[in-house]
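Lecture notes, part 5. Sequence design as translation. It can be helpful to think of inverse folding as translation between two languages: the language of shapes and the language of residues. The source text, in structure tokens, appears below.
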């Protein structure tokens, strides 16, 4: 029996290209010979430009391309903005000044406070007062990492109002 001639309607030019064969033993051997440069290229993240949304199977693995050309994957945390970093630095400085204010103000009141309260109780409360701004800053930072920036700023502002070093403000440098 003679083989049937290829029907033009059922074939495309280039069908006999050996690189297009999938599942042949040659393809398996080729997969074993892939060098590191090809795997690094294949491992590049899939990303869409801003405004595009991936849907369907595997859409959770698609990132987005930022304006600077970097790729942000869905599980990655977004970096803080410049304004948030500046606010973080300002609040850090304010809380550091509060620590210094509690130390100076607390030590200025030592003579009067020890007359009214036992010395160990006074020093324990002074230690807690000095540590309060540090703990507030660290706790707010850790608990609002995944929150909006405005919420973090509100909590920092609440700490600025609540943790004012009153002994330093009331007594100040009187006595020198």
């Amino acid at each position: 029996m003679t083989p049937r001639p290829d029907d033009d309607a059922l074939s495309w030019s280039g069908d006999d290209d050996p690189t297009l064969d999938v599942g042949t033993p040659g393809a398996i051997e080729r997969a074993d010979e892939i060098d590191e440069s090809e795997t690094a290229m294949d491992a590049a993240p899939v990303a869409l430009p801003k405004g595009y949304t991936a849907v369907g199977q595997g859409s959770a693995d698609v990132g987005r391309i930022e304006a600077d050309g970097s790729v942000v994957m869905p599980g990655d945390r977004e970096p803080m903005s410049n304004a948030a970093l500046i606010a973080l630095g300002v609040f850090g400085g304010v809380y550091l000044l509060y620590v210094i204010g509690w130390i100076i103000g607390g030590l200025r009141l030592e003579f009067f406070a020890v007359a009214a309260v036992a010395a160990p109780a006074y020093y324990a409360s002074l230690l807690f007062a000095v540590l309060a701004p540090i703990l507030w800053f660290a706790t707010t930072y850790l608990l609002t990492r995944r929150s909006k920036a405005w919420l973090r700023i509100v909590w920092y502002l609440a700490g600025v109002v609540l943790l004012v070093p009153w002994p330093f403000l009331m007594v100040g440098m009187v006595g020198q």
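The translated text above is only one of many valid answers, since several sequences can fold into similar shapes. The helical segments are 25-32, 36-42, 82-108, 110-116, 119-143, 149-162, 166-171.
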